[in-house]
Design goal:
The structure is a single chain. This protein is α+β, with helices and mostly antiparallel strands and 285 residues long. The protein has one domain: 3-Layer(aba) Sandwich (Beta-lactamase). It contains nine helices and ten strands. Helix 2 runs antiparallel to helix 9, helix 3 runs parallel beside helix 5 and helix 5 crosses helix 6. The protein is globular and about 45 Å long.
Length: 285
């Protein structure tokens, strides 16, 4: 198992991960809410040893605390990039003063809800492939996300900090180049993924009544190694808090073990984060 280190804990006004970062990813700890970073790190250190590496990030949309823990650096996106692709498509439509066409909406629903790759290929072409996604990410403030040189969308490389910036734009309540209608549309798709893809960060909520999490998962076996990338991003409710959560992993021995790791990491991090936030009292910002 790769060594794990706490890499970020912040309490800042406005978009937390957008404000507390460097060009290559998260910045060192800044103005941390007392105990939030340490509590999350201690809880994740107590997890059973895992193959491969992982990183998990949590942000409270109400209190503005944010923390990231795990092995830093870039990870393959696999299918979580589909949220980014749809965001780029919506930004283009907004710029042109139009809405998505009926065929585009059908493709978008298939891409997000059932992770359909043929639909993704079509929308990837619609946004202009690597150039279109790179341009959208520059606008969104993703500084360490890079498309694959050969144009394979699933091999886009990203960091947990960048995914949190994307989630703020997509699932946050403000500070976004997306209109409220675009954000509502994205959240509606991410809240209605097919049942067998509702794993991942949803483990942080457990079984509860209500709409459930808004999420997108990604999984990809690497042909060179036979090991798996398994990722999950989205928005959950826990303990009266609305949280953005990202878990990225690679080097996993199987899909099932990767899913189990992602779910353990998400559930453990969210519980520790919220418990520490409550102990520290209300954050300022």
């Amino acid at each position: 198992m790769a060594a794990l280190t706490l890499t970020l804990a912040v309490t800042v006004p406005g978009p937390a991960f957008a404000a507390a970062r460097t060009a290559d990813g998260p910045a060192p700890a800044v103005a941390a809410s007392a105990g939030v970073d340490g509590a999350m790190g201690e809880a994740l250190d107590a997890l059973p040893a895992s193959d491969g590496r992982y990183t998990v990030a949590v942000q409270d949309l109400n209190g503005r605390d944010a923390a990231q823990y795990g092995t830093g650096g870039a990870y393959d996106t696999a299918s979580i990039v589909k949220v980014d692709i749809l965001t780029a498509l919506l930004l283009d439509a907004q710029d042109r003063g139009t809405s998505l066409t009926a065929p585009q909406r059908k493709l978008a629903a298939a891409m997000i809800r059932s992770s359909d790759n043929d639909a993704t290929d079509a929308l990837w072409k619609a946004i202009g492939g690597t150039e279109g996604l790179d341009a959208a990410n520059k606008r969104l403030g993703l500084k360490a996300t890079h498309t694959d040189k050969d144009g394979h969308w699933g091999l886009t490389r990203t960091t947990a900090a960048d995914q949190m910036v994307l989630l703020e734009a997509v699932l946050g309540d403000a500070h976004s180049p997306l209109t409220a209608d675009s954000r509502t549309y994205l959240r509606s798709l991410m809240s209605t993924v097919v049942p067998d893809q509702r794993w991942g960060i949803s483990a942080a909520e457990g079984k509860r009544a209500g709409a459930g999490p808004a999420l997108k998962n990604g999984w990809l076996p690497r042909s060179a190694t036979g090991l798996w990338d398994v990722n999950s991003i989205g928005r959950v409710e826990y303990g009266g808090h609305t949280l953005l959560v990202t878990v990225l992993s690679d080097g996993q021995p199987s899909y099932r073990k990767g899913v189990a790791l992602v779910e353990r990491a998400a559930a453990t991090a969210v519980k520790a984060f919220v418990t520490a936030e409550k102990a520290a009292g209300p954050s300022k910002g």
